[in-house]
Amino acid sequence: MNKTNKTIAFIPVRGGSKSIPLKNIKPFCGKPLVCWNIEALESCAGVDEIVVATDSDKIEETVLARKYKKTKIYRRSAENACDTSSTESVMLEYIHYAKPCEDAIFMLVQATSPLTENRHFSEALEIYSKGKYDSMLTCVRNYRFFWNADGTSMNYDYRNRPRRQNFGGMLMENGAFYVNTVRNILASGNRLSGKIGIYEMPEYTATEIDEPDDWIVLENMMRKHVLNKREKPKTAIKLFLSDVDGTLTDGGMYYSERGDELKKFNTRDGMGFQLLREAGIKTGIITSEDTRTVENRAKKMRIDYLVQGKRNGSKLAAVREICEKEEISLDEVAYIGDDINCIELLSHVGVAACPADASAKVKNIPNINVMTKNGGGGCVREFIETLPL
Questions:
Q1: Parallel, antiparallel, or unpaired: how do β-strands 31-32 and 27-28 relate?
Q2: Inter-axis angle of helices 118-129 and 33-42, to 10 degrees?
Q3: Gap between the Cα atoms of 8 and 105, Å rounded
Q4: Which of 119, 144, 161, 292 is an active site residue?
Q5: In this predicted model, what pLDDT tens digit does every residue of 231-275 receive, in sequence order?
Q6: Which one of 94, 99, 294, 322 has the minimum C-beta count within 10 Å?
Q7: C-alpha dihedral over 212, 213, 215, 221, to 10 degrees?
Q8: Active site includes 277?
Q9: Contact 343, 365 (CB under 8 A)
Q10: Which residues of 318-330 are buried (b: 16+ CB within 10 A; e: fewer)?
Q11: Is 241 left (phi over 0), alpha (psi -120 to 50) or beta?
């Protein structure tokens, strides 16, 4: 997209939410809800600046901890952060405060639509750049039949009921994002004005998160339509490594009546290691603990390398030794871990991942893949299935 005007993406997120407490930073598919839109915008070449407008210390801390390049925080006033405040009121508050150029493109983005991807923002901005519309909104095509309260049909002739494939449907606003200019917003006091264009999004983006049931529906939609279709890493992986506690297990400490320590592993993860072995990829377990239980599990899964009793920097040193023996580089290593003693190794391997319930510091590692499953819940298998085997 060729453009001369600055593009600002504006994401209003309040700390208060009656239906879902702290909704905007609650983990959604393993990542704080608001971060899905932020990261899609961060990778969008057409967006210059991302403004997260919040009244919450926790939201601010969560966003800033991820060290995004384009994103900054704006502390909205309490007056414009209450239940009765309109989105337009906080947009105008920010514009009057920051005084951006009136020709700047101002894109209102809703965190409650996490399935919005980089391509959606890019395509809409490309359309807008052609100058055909004063403002734009996103819609999905709805193929339901609607009726008026007086018993008259709204969008079809009930006497000649059309088949779905012959029915054009109706465009329904999905609330994902809106595009306008600062000048238009100041003049109209509204997110939309003048000649309005529509960017049509996929039908699966129709739902916004408002109630707990929406959360369940959209997490499933995210896994099906977004996460499962993401491009797999191009790095040729030759060694796959996993942590144990909190990754291959749920992190729980179990003891028998005799005081024996027990661990619960997931059989699907075991099958994942078998798939790696069949693909000719070497495997390993590297853990801070040193137990017979892990040794037995490693033998059953026919692991190539078992390294126990390694903490922090010693994990990286141990993996360097394995790489030297295998005559490979760290870029050819994939590793999944969950806690702070995994951070150094996760930060050096070619492909890094963590469970959905990993430590916040681990999730903040640049370019880490956050799984949708928890430790011990099949997250290792999930990671393996993202790799080019």
A1: antiparallel
A2: 50
A3: 6
A4: 161
A5: 555 668 999 999 999 999 987 777 767 777 778 889 999 999 999
A6: 99
A7: 180
A8: no
A9: yes
A10: bbeebbeeeebee
A11: beta
